[in-house]
Amino acid sequence: MMNMETLLAWADQHAALFFVLVVSVAATSGWFYWRSREPWQAEAPVPMLRRRYGFVIAIVTSGVFAALAFAIEADGRLVAFDQRITDAVQARLGPAMLDVLAAITQLGGSHQLVIASVLIAIALLGLRHPLLASGWALSVLGNGLLIRVGKNHFQRTRPVHDHGPVIETGYSFPSGHAAGSLMFYGMLAYVLVVLLPPRWHRLVFGVAIAMVALIGGSRVLLQVHFVSDVFAGYALAIGWGALCVSAIEFVRTSRLPKPIEDALNYSKSGP
């Protein structure tokens, strides 16, 4: 029977495959769970994030982030595992694949996401959705602040990556690309789900999940981040995003005084 040491040794020897397997299992599980649900209704587009669930998700993801942070600070088995994955990727990927990954990773670049975020906020205001615009701005700005605070606090050095097409400076933990892309594409999917008919909901979130997975994976395969950096970024963004969406949903689904409801341009029947 395989014991824990044997399992870890296998994971070390098959690090790149192990990473792809974890992402694939997570995506497949989410897809089957999604298929088992009925299309969402306009008045509750994200029922799992309404009110109480957002706080639960935030607590769980905060625990995941804390566990990763403690493991990094301890400089033990997780750090060694991170390095083995980086070494395995470096030994297997050629220049052509690295160029493709460099193009993918730009979809989560901070400059691109900032410009896109400003345009989306302006568009939401122009379409007379001030509640969504405010929630969008809060989620994106808060996420950026959390990333900056996390990097400056932990000050983890990036993997050696001077052999690749992408050179990054600054600290490594948590991954800003992972957190930023999850927040941007996740919140964009939420906004579109609120605004679009139910038949589009699964496609919207499916595309968002694929984008986030590709960008996060590209950071590891380009060797500019360790695996734990990426998962910490995901945990950070999921927790903060859950709180933001819960707050928006609380306002959207609450019976507000008429003047406030008119100011927010909110309709119980959906946009």
Number of helices: 11
Q: Alpha-carbon distance between the termini?
A: 57 Å
Derived from helix and strand composition plus strand pairing, the structural class reads mainly alpha
Which percent range describes the beta-strand content? under 5%
Helix percent reads: over 70%
Backbone CA Rg? 20 Å
Mean pLDDT: 77
Low-confidence stretches: 37-44, 263-271
- Which sheet architecture does the biggest sheet show? none
List the helices and strands in order: HHHHHHHHHHH
Shape: globular
The counted number of beta strands is: 0
Task: Please tag this protein with its features.
271 residues, mainly alpha, 11 helices, globular, disordered C terminus
Q: How would you portray this structure in words?
A:
This protein is mainly alpha-helical. 73% of the residues lie in helices and 0% in strands. It has helices at 4-13, 15-35, 52-74, 77-92, 95-105, 110-126, 130-154, 176-195, 201-221, 227-253, 258-264. The radius of gyration is 20 Å and the shape is globular. The termini are far apart.
Summarize this structure briefly.
This protein has helices at residues 4-13, 15-35, 52-74, 77-92, 95-105, 110-126, 130-154, 176-195, 201-221, 227-253, 258-264. The chain has 271 residues and is an all-alpha fold.
